[in-house]
Amino acid sequence: MNDPVELGALDLAALLCSRVCHDIISPVGAIVNGLEVLDEEKDEAMKAFAFDLIRKSANQASAKLQFARLAFGAAGSAGAEIDLGDAEKVASGYMKGEKADFAFTAPRVFMAKNRVKLLLNLILLGNAAIPAGGSITVAVEGDPAAPRFTIRCTGPRPRVPAAFEKLVPGTIEADAIDAHAIQGYYTGALARAVDMAVTARLDGDTVVLEARPGAAAASAAA
Known about the structure:
By secondary structure, the chain is α+β, with helices and mostly antiparallel strands. It has helices spanning 9-40, 44-71, 84-95, 113-129, 182-193; strands at 81-83, 101-105, 110-112, 135-141, 148-154, 196-203, 206-213.
């Protein structure tokens, strides 16, 4: 296996910022459209529709930003820990705007922030595994210092995310990593940073993503 590519800090920061902007531009744009309707529309039914659009879009934008703060942001100082209860809250809020039902089972403990960030990023990859919707269940087990993550994604036409071929292992040319691909690459970088092996496999109508303590550099699709 080729050695994982390492993006420069400036490129990584820029691409992650682009990813976050991509996530929130749609709900923010919907808020702007709703405000324009309120400015111009006289019909009360249309105004009620615009208020509902603004309210839902604002909630969605807030949920995406809270999720991004933990999944991509600094989330405290170096060596900080994150409450898994907070991770469940932001993940559940994010998934309310997605097609799949979502369940999160984990002890209410503090865990090293990069492990929590890995978990949240795996949830994003799990969501991509069932684009037509279905259900996602997340289980966190074991010692917080050496946890095991299992994410089961069940739905019609499931697929192992393409990111597991090269992006998660990091065996891709740096100039091929763009704002769309950065999240998969970042997931692999987090796994290597916390020495966890990440795998993905298709089991019938379910894609199973797992992260286990071990040599993260050896992670690859099963």
